[in-house]
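OP here, attaching both records as promised.
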Amino acid sequence: MFDDSCYMEPLHLAGRLIMENGGETCRVEETVLRMGHAFGFREVECFAVPSGLFVSYRKSDGTIETAVKRIRRKGIDLTRIDEVNAISRHLEQEKMSCQEVLSQLKAVERRPSRLSPLQMAGAAAMSTAGWSLMFGGGAWDTVTAFFVGLLIEWVTLLMDKFHMQTLVATLAGGFLAAFLPMAVNRLTGALVVEAAVAGALMRKSTPTLPKTPQKAHSLPAELTELETFCRETFGVRATITGNQKKGKITLQYYSAEELEQVYELLHQLHHD
């Protein structure tokens, strides 16, 4: 008998990849829920926090499969997040096996970062200097913010290399962002401390990610209710495309047991 416990691995991997590469917790939860429903599970739960991911779903035999994974790394790689989102959308649109999804996600995980550590540090330093200028800093503030950003990024990468906690890296970065500009100002008296500190802190902000594209159109309320009714009645994924005059109803099954269940219900309706 097929054991649908195997679906837990791709669900956890998708959520972890988004979390580790700069995605928001709400995006992690949304993606995992959509993938779980696309796999054919009606009851899927996901709870994400910066340091962990909780996923559970009701299996075909009625039992609950639950797993918790620790999130140990944090970084920014929006390309990886976009690739995970593309896999989840493909899963929703076409039938994909558990192994196919898992293989594609592992390929995303193995892909090296498009930026080297040196490039990441340089980009962080330039970002810090730019923010300092935006907050009204002068030449000294910009130069100071540049080197502060460079140092913070180097410390963050070093801590990540030794798998140190994200909280520790955040606290260390915040301390350096406040202490170093104040120390330079004490020595030179030439800084607008607020501008240098603000620039260093702003680079720690996570970029806003584009929302996952939604369907080009939404169903009328009546068809949405019908879609839900079909899903609950047949116990499989049901989708409706079209309008009240023309369209199609699609039932998707992911096991022989689900196909047998649909057949028995249709057979019973035919004889009634």
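Record two, same layout:
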Amino acid sequence: MKNIRTILAAATAGLALFAAQGADAPEFRYPKDGVTAELLAECKARGITITDWHLHIRGGMTPEMAAEREQASGILSSAMENHGREWEIFTNERLVEFAAAARRANPKLPVGIQVNDRDWFKQISPEVRQQLDYVLADTMIMPDEEGGEPKKMWLPGNVTDDVNDEAAVQAWMERYMKHCLQVVNEPITILANPTYLPPPLEKRTDLWTPERMDALINAAVKNNVALEINAETYPGPEFIKRAKKAGAKFTIGVNNFTDNIRSYDRVWDMIEQCGLTADDFLRL
């Protein structure tokens, strides 16, 4: 059986040529190259089905394109929209419309939402929730210290004021850890971007101590919440290995902002590096 990392290393030149030749073609939205086919075949040989559960319907991406993307690439697609007070979909009526439109595009396409308000489960009726295949959340929006207005932590000025003050950083991390545990204890299916750190602290991976990683992992396992392996960043191999040992389930997510392709190279690498098998992935 081939080594996934060996396939990736040998494919670099081929991928560059594919990108150069296909940049203007509609197929460039999809990883329809020989390398992806070979990697998917290797995963299939191991019994692993690759599904992208973090595929947003935004930035030009539509449910129809998600279905086409699946057919073209062999990577199974989903259709997901953001849900929250600051997003287009917030009411039950709009959520029903989205789910219906996605299923018209492809009845087999899993339909989900990314919830951004921490009281989301009070806003969505039980009947409407039954129309969804999954609910995804991340920890990237957290209320300020007074517990008031939610702050989008990827934006400037929404984290601790002095990243050089170690006491302030540790105090922020303790508050953030409580927020992470709150999110993973909600009735969600998938926790996206686990171990996320905002830009001012993104190099402080030491903040995610073994104890903090285990606390988040154990809560996810207890609540049957799958942990996402993001195609670009989070989490790292240490977290994935600890989560696997604890019996956690994983998903894969590209978290697109447009309809253009993002590389899945990191996904392949994490599968190989962390020894993931078919039993480690979420099945719905």
